[in-house]
Specification:
The strands form four sheets. Strands 12, 13, 14, 15, 16, 17, 18 and 19 form an eight-stranded antiparallel β-sheet that branches. Strands 5-6-10-8-9 form a five-stranded antiparallel β-sheet. A four-stranded mixed β-sheet has the order 1-2-4-3. The protein folds into five domains: about 100 residues, Uridine Diphospho-n-acetylenolpyruvylglucosamine Reductase, domain 2; about 120 residues, Uridine Diphospho-n-acetylenolpyruvylglucosamine Reductase, domain 3 (2-Layer Sandwich), CATH 3.30.465; about 110 residues, 2-Layer Sandwich (Alpha-Beta Plaits); about 80 residues, Alpha-Beta Plaits (2-Layer Sandwich), CATH 3.30.70.2740; about 30 residues. The protein is globular, with a radius of gyration of 23 Å. A hairpin with a 5-residue loop joins strand 18 and strand 19. It is an alpha+beta fold. The chain is built from 16 helices and 19 strands. The structure holds flavin-adenine dinucleotide. Flavin-adenine dinucleotide binds next to strand 3, helix 5 and strand 10.
């Protein structure tokens, strides 16, 4: 990476000329941009917040001309330390949070053209009056640009797919030629005119995402939710297959929650209760949700009744208990697990995936490994069982018998990721990306030829290697 030849006073006045005083932050005002949601804590040179694409272009041109490293940032909810600057104090954080004036809904096309800085919640508020939504569902409120750059998954992936599968078109500002705007794709569901270039910017970087055109979906008219307790680990897949066979058109979520995860949320997050009280939290439960769009006028469908009757049939074979109803409360419990786990101590997070047929086996072997080699650590696992994803989080509790030791964390990470990738044919990062946090595993598990290709693509996109946190081709977020 070339060193910048511009001092801070000169840079500040150049940025003021582009974005005005309101568009630049310095000193303590930068704190929220320097610390990540889970990992990443650094020092920004300055934070620049362009309000339109022309300002993004001008900032990029300035950076390219004067060798200034820049780091795109959306809502800073990323989980792999890729959205925060390093400790060098040389990186300019390019926050897209003010790039939010454009959000144009095409109701008949079921699509929306939206600026990168618009948040998921804002987008859904805008879509609601049209009976539409963007159903990527997670316990955070990311920006659309960040969602594209990380290819966000979430809890409804089995029904609606990830960001990648809903992306129709993308606008990016390039590092080379500096500041050039590239429009990739159109608001089309079919377009077989060669390589789908926009996908090279999904889950990667080396350019600034400024606008996306995404497919949105009809809001469900009915929902039915239940938290069920499987009869055994083996019963989990039998239950999922029964759902897909009998109610498959409506299955939207099938989320696993371990007893430790449920208890951590109940104990530490206000206004949560154990849905199975007065019994203890079960060892494992599954949050199931069905969604349907059938209008009452044309359909006799009562989704909750269908779910209840299905669960009755499953009693004593695949399930042994169920808490029905209050969807808001059940989802609040699900989305509070991360907060509950953080309250217990320091999380060592594993966002992994395996073929879903082996997910319960992986969780069992992972727990056995931790209990055997690291008995002072606590596993708080939960995940998107139906898509094979699991947040196999291990907590170094505040009251653990051993003091926190980064060398132990490193050994644990090597052991779990080795098991996931080598023994289970899985992925060491199911949905959060690579970033500095997972860089060593990218280098260990990605075939050398693919790393060369990624590096070549990065060289083409960003020849000075100015944009982003780490140099690993496109797979850096
Ligand atoms: C409580 C919690 C729960 C979560 N649950 C899930 C989950 O279930 N599934 C899931 O997939 N993720 C989950 N995440 C992770 C996170 O929300 C996603 O990675 C998110 O989509 C990142 O978007 P962001 O706007 O916050 O991006 P940031 O965190 O700001 O940035 C993330 C990366 O994208 C790059 N980037 C951001 N904006 C742009 C842009 N406009 N152009 C180019 N690059 C850009 C950054 O440089 C960085 O590398 C969770 C996070 C939290 C805190």
């Amino acid at each position: 990476m070339a060193a910048s030849d511009m001092d801070n006073t000169e840079l500040l006045s150049a940025l003021h000329a582009i974005v005005g005083e309101v568009g630049v932050l310095q000193g303590s005002d930068m704190a929220a941009y320097e610390e990540g949601a889970r990992y990443g804590q650094g020092r920004a040179r300055l934070v620049v917040r362009p309000a339109d694409v022309a300002q993004v272009q001008a900032v990029v041109r300035l950076c390219a001309a004067r060798g200034i490293a820049l780091l795109p940032q959306g809502a800073n909810t990323g989980m792999v330390g890729a959205s925060t600057p390093d400790m060098s104090g040389t990186q300019l954080v390019l926050s897209l949070s003010r790039l939010r004036s454009h959000c144009e809904v095409d109701v008949a096309n079921r699509s929306v053209v939206v600026d990168a800085g618009v948040t998921l919640q804002e987008l859904n508020d805008k879509l609601e009056p049209h009976g539409l939504w963007f159903p990527i569902d997670l316990g955070a409120n990311p920006s659309i640009g960040g969602m594209v750059a990380t290819n966000t998954g979430g809890t409804r992936l089995i029904r609606y797919g990830d960001v990648r599968s809903n992306l129709m078109a993308l606008q990016v500002v390039l590092m080379d030629p500096p500041g050039e705007v590239l429009e990739l794709g159109r608001a089309l569901r079919k377009n077989n005119t060669g390589v789908d270039w926009k996908q090279l910017f999904v889950g990667g970087s080396g350019a600034i995402v400024t606008r996306a055109t995404i497919q949105v979906h009809a809001r469900p008219t009915q929902r039915a939710t239940a938290l069920v307790v499987p009869a055994s680990d083996e019963a989990v897949m039998e239950l999922l297959q029964a759902f897909e066979r009998d109610l498959g058109d409506w299955l939207a979520a099938f989320e696993g929650i371990s007893g430790n995860a449920m208890q951590a949320a109940i104990d530490h997050v206000p206004n949560l209760r154990n849905p199975f009280a007065p019994d203890d939290a079960p060892e494992f439960a599954i949050l199931v949700e069905l969604e349907a769009n059938a209008a009452a006028k044309y359909s006799q469908l009562d989704l909750q009744e269908a779910l209840n009757s299905f669960l009755e049939d499953q009693f004593e074979s695949t399930i042994v208990n169920a808490a029905l109803g209050n969807a808001t409360e059940l989802w609040h419990l699900r989305h509070s697990i991360s907060e509950g786990a953080r309250a217990l101590g320091k999380p060592i997070a594993f966002d992994v995936s395996v073929p879903r047929s082996r997910i319960m086996e992986f969780c069992r072997k992972g727990r056995e490994l931790v209990a055997r080699d690291y008995p002072f650590l606590t596993v708080v696992d939960f995940g998107h069982i139906a898509d094979g994803g699991v947040h196999f989080n291990v907590i170094w509790r505040k009251d653990a018998t051993e003091p926190y030791d980064p060398a132990v964390v490193q050994r644990l990470r090597d052991a779990i990721y080795g098991m996931v990738v080598q023994d289970f044919g899985g992925s060491y990062s199911a949905e959060h990306g690579v970033g500095p946090h997972n860089l060593a595993y990218y280098q260990r598990f990605t075939p050398p030829l693919l790393q060369q290709w990624a590096d070549g693509w990065r060289d083409r996109l960003d020849p000075q290697h100015l944009c982003g946190t780490v140099d690993l081709g496109t797979a850096k977020n």
